[in-house]
Amino acid sequence: MSSHNVYTSAGPQVTAQQNEDEINQDNGEKLLERLCQQALKGKSTLNDVNKAFVLMEGDNNTETGETIGDGKSAVKRLQNMGYVKDEKKWLTKKGFDTISRMILRNIMQNAKSSGVGEHMTNLRGSGEITMDMTRKYEFGDDPKNLSVHDTLFNAILHHGNNKFPLNVTTQDMAVHETYSDTRAAIVYCIDLSSTMKTKMKDGTSRMESAKRALWGLYGANTKLFPDDSVYIVGFASMAARINPYDIPYLRAFDADEFLHYTNYQAALQLSRSILRNVTSDNKKIILITDGQPSACYVENTYQKDVILSEKPYSNFYAPEQDILNRIYAEKSMRLDANKDRQVYLCYRYKKVDARIHAQTIREARRCQSDGISIDTVVITDEPELVEYGQTFAKETHGMMFHTSDGSMADILVRDYIGRSHIRTQWNMM
Questions:
Q1: pLDDT of 11 above 50
Q2: Minimal CA–CA distance to 399: which of 409, 389, 408, 407?
C-alpha cells in the first residue's frame, strides 16, 4: 500500500480567538469614530451621546445588517475601555488624546494621498526632523541630509550610465527636506458667533469643522512639536481663553444673546496679552471665522459719545456678573470682561462699520508691533466675506485661507507643520 506525504505551508494559523480580537479592534475603531462625531457636534451630556449612538446603531442594523460589539450599549463599552465617564465633561483624557491622534492620522493620510508626503521618518541630531520628501540640492545645504538613493538615481537618469563608477554632479544631488526646531507660539482664535452653526456643503457645520481643526492641531503640537506653545481663544462679542481639553464641548452662542456678535478686536487683544510673556521668535495668531467683524470695544465715555453723535440709536453691551457666571458654568469660559469697558454692537449685512474696522486694524497693528503675525481662515461661500478677509489680510500683512467645506483641519495642520517649521533656503541665510 503506497503512502502519500502531505506537505502544508508553515504560515501563521489564524485562530478563532485572533479573529474575535480583530473584530473587537475593528469595532473599537468604529466606536471611536462615532464618539468623535458626537464630540464635534457638541453633545452636552453622556446621555445625549448614548441616545445618538442608539439611533446610529439602529440605522446601521436596518440598512446594512451591521452590529457593533457584544450587545452591550456602545457608551457602556466606551466607559469600560476608559474613553468616557459619566460626568459633565464626559470625555476622559485617554479618550481626548486617542481621538486627537486619530484626527491627526487621518489628516496626514489625506496629505500623503494628495502627494504632499508630509510624514516623518526619523530624528537626526538636535533640532531637525528628516522627511521622506526630497528636493534639489542648493548651495549651503547640510551634506548630512543628502539622499544617496535619489542622488544615484538622478545620476543614472541624467547621464544614461548605470555602471559604476557613476559621474555624479551637483545637478544630480538631492537632499531630504527637514523641519527646523524653531519654537513657535501660536494662538488659534475660534469664532463662536451664532452663524458658526451654519451647515456647509459636506453636511457638517462650520463649528464642527473648526473643532476638528483645533483637535488635530493639538495632536500635531503634542506629538510632533511638544516644545511649541499653542493656545486657544474663543470669541464672539467678547473673548475667553479655552482649555484644549474643552474643545469637545465648544458650542456657538445663540442668536438671542448679545454675546453672539463677532469681535475680532477682542480675540486679537486677548491673544496679544497671552503671547506677551512667551519667549519665542515665531509668534502668530490664527483667526478662524465665518464672518466680518460686527463688534468692537469702547474703552471710555468719549469714544461712546462720538459714536452716539454719529449714530444716536447705537447699541452697547456690558454683561452683568450673573451672565458672566452663567457662561462660565455652562461653557467653562471666563470672558475677558472689564466693568469699565463696553462692546459696541453693529451688524451690517455683508458690510463692516467703519469704526469697528478701524478699531480692529488698530489692535492688529499693536500685535504687529509686538512681533506677532496674523493669518486668517475664512469659512464661507459668500464672496463679500471672502473679500473682507482678503482686505484684512492685506492690511495686516498676513495670509488668508478660504474654505467652504470640511477641509479646514487639513489646511491648518499642514500650515502649522509646514510654515511654522519647514526649513527653507530663505531662513537658513
A1: no
A2: 389
Amino acid at 254: D
> 22 vs 10, 17, 28, 105, 265, CA distance in Å?
22, 9, 10, 20, 52
Fold of the domain spanning 184-422: Rossmann fold (3.40.50)
Does 227 score more than 90 pLDDT?
no
Looking at residue 66, the DSSP 8-state letter turns out to be: -
C-alpha cell at 162: 548605470
Half-sphere exposure of 256 (CA within 13 A, CB side): 0
Q: Residue 328: enclosing H or E segment and its boundaries?
A: helix 321-331
DSSP annotation string for 384-410: HHHHHHHHHHHHHT--EEEESSTTHHH
71 vs 215: which has the higher pLDDT: 215
Among the residues of 65-162, which ranges form H helices? 74-80, 93-113, 148-159
In this predicted structure, what is the pLDDT of residue 191?
A: 93
| Three cell numbers, residue 300 | 471710555
Cα radius of gyration rounded to whole Å, the chain: 27
Greatest mean pLDDT among 44-58, 371-385, 408-422:
371-385
Share of the chain above pLDDT 70, in %: 78
In terms of DSSP bridges, do strands 400-403 and 372-379 run parallel, antiparallel, or are they unpaired?
Answer: parallel
Q: How far apart are CA 410 and CA 108, in angstroms?
A: 8
Query: Where exactly are the structural domains of the chain?
Result: 17-91, 131-180, 184-422
- Interhelix angle 93-113/206-224, nearest 10 degrees: 90
Q: pTM of this prediction?
A: 0.73
pLDDT in tens, 189-203: 999 998 888 888 778
Say whether 33 sits in a helix, a strand or coil.
helix
CA angle 365, 369, 372 (to 5 degrees): 85
Q: Grid cell 545645504 — which residue?
A: 141
